[in-house]
Amino acid sequence: MSAGHSHPAHGHSHGLVHGSIRRSRAGLRAVGLALAVLGLTALAQVGVFAASGSVSLLADLVHNAGDAATAIPLGIAFAMRDPRAERWAGLAVVLAIFVSACVAGYVAIDRLVDPEDVAAPGAVVLAGLLGFAGNWVAAGIRGRAGHRLDSPALVADAAHARADAYVSLAVVASAIAVVIGLQIADPIIGLFITLVILRITGQSWKEVRRGSPEQ
Q: 73-101: string of b/e by CB count within 10 Å (b at 16+)?
């Protein structure tokens, strides 16, 4: 009889371990898929930026590349299966967003001081639409996994990617403005994108803090 009592307890312990492993694998899968989507998006935008010199596209590109890079700390946290590591990963996400805003803002201000014409506006439109699609898909992947796994870091990253999708549409607006002769619109929209990214930084910081585990 005593052996019968010990067996369920033993089985329950294994169930907890397996649940943790399943959560880890699901988190890693979501992070990996989002990384692939955003990585391909950023690579495609690199080529268009090299041909066009668009500041607004550069701001979007830098941000997308930084967003893709946040997969590294998130992936490590899920592999460790440690809520505290997941929280630190969320803070790394916030830092990456802030750094991308600083880079985008610096380039936009530099282009306002030293203007340059934007070439191939049609290609910039396509790159902006690609940025919208890539971020929207990545947001869906992260958001579904974040809510299913109760991960504040993934939820914050999903909100970040969803906002980035709309930021990419600003790149499209910039290219259209260039077509009608408003070259100055490109760095101005680059500054607008910087402000939006800073707002996302604050929202993501609040999300990560709200989801911090009890000490």
A: bbbbbbeeebbebbbebbbbbbbbbbbbb
pTM of the entire predicted model: 0.68
Helices 55-69 + 152-179 axis angle, to 10:
160
pLDDT at 8: 47
Q: Which of 190, 166, 198, 203 is nearest to 97 (CA)?
A: 198
Name residues whose C-beta falls within 8 Å of residue 99's C-beta, 6 or more positions apart in sequence. 66
**What is the distance between the alpha carbons of residues 29 and 38, in angstroms, rounded to a whole number?**
14
Q: Tell me: the pLDDT tens digits for 31-85?
A: 889 889 988 888 888 888 888 888 888 878 877 787 777 777 777 777 787 777 7
Percent of the chain surpassing pLDDT 70: 87
Looking at domain 27-210, does it have CATH number 1.20.1510?
A: yes
Distance (Å, rounded) from C-alpha 169 to C-alpha 158?
A: 17
What count of other Cβ atoms lies within 10 Å of the Cβ of residue 161?
A: 28
Question: Which among 140, 202, 136, 204 has a CA at the least distance from the CA of 168?
Answer: 136
Predicted local distance difference test score (pLDDT) of residue 211: 55
